[in-house]
Amino acid sequence: MLTRQAFERQAPLRDSGYVEFRARDAGASRTLTELLGPPGESGNWSIRYDHYQQLLQMLNVADRRLTEAQKQSVECRFFFEEPVAGTERDESDGWVQASRLLTGFGPHRVVDYIANRRFSSYMQPIVQLSGTPIGYEMLLRPLPEQPPFRPSQLFEAARAAGLHSFLDREARNSAIRVASRQLPAGVKKFINFLPSSIYRPDQCLQQTFERIIMSGMDPADFVFEVVETERMDDVKHLNRVFAAYRNMGIRLAMDDLGDEFATVEAMEQLQPDYIKLDRKWVAGCDADADKQRRIEDVLERASRFHGVVLAEGVEREEEWQYLREAGVPLMQGYLFGPPSPVPMPVRFERTASTVSV
Questions:
Q1: Which of these three, 41, 67, 100, is where a domain ends?
Q2: pLDDT tens digits along 138-159
Q3: Residue 218 is part of which domain span?
Q4: pLDDT digits (tens, 9 = 90+) for 98-149
Q5: Are residues 62 and 128 in the same domain?
Q6: Is the N or C terminus of the chain more exposed, i.e. has fewer CB atoms within 10 Å?
Q7: pTM value?
Q8: Residue 263's CATH number
């Protein structure tokens, strides 16, 4: 049974399914016929795609061929062969303007960024108390010849179009490619992922696992970080995602603890291997008693399930000194080095005990 997906739910589009187009403009109809063949009996075009790259390329070509006015006259809707969580009671007919899928971002469309992989991954060191790097976080950045962009804004635009699952997948693939070229065995590779884009964990993550193995790397060297811009209220789904990664031998981290959505309560339920303190609790922590109490509380709670706390955004030596004395074992921030396309020497290093990670 095919089920329809409505965009208002912001559920991610699936890797395979059907997309149906209709046009109110004669010129747009001619262009769609040239691209997709003659319409069906209903006067619409129904196309099956078996891989998300097929869909992206189809949309990319349509974007180049249709004028801006024609895009406003073209509508589309999606059908999938399994239920789409949260959309079963939707009363709309699912049609939306195709321009919503073809939303712009900077000089390109979102589909173009994803289909043509107009980004790469930079690395920022994650260090022990001494400043010795134990790993690197892989961070999405534009290609050198591309204009700069904020990754969070690119993901926001992709989410609005329902394309965030595809962007998340390609961002993970980019991080794995760069890590395989730049980082040796034994060095931790921290990679971000959006749990809401992983609608079937075992299926959606299999390609990621295969890429790690085919690259000759050890899954135990990878740490995948939950990065989410929606409230973490579906703990059952998150636990399924965590279980799928752990079954592959990969460790998990909870990013931005202390942010609006990454709460201490969610940390205690998920029990990640690593807990990353948000920058807003780290900045000026050496002189802020409230922040110190919060950091010490996280350290105490994380110790109950042997979670390793990592402070993000460390920029001042005074912050490093307080965090060290408080017992935060891992740190990341511009004090040690900015994100870079290749691993760079750590700027700040002091003699201190190390920690097992």
A1: 100
A2: 999 999 888 899 999 999 999 9
A3: 113-332
A4: 998 998 888 889 999 999 999 999 999 999 988 899 999 999 999 988 889 9
A5: no
A6: N
A7: 0.89
A8: 3.20.20.450
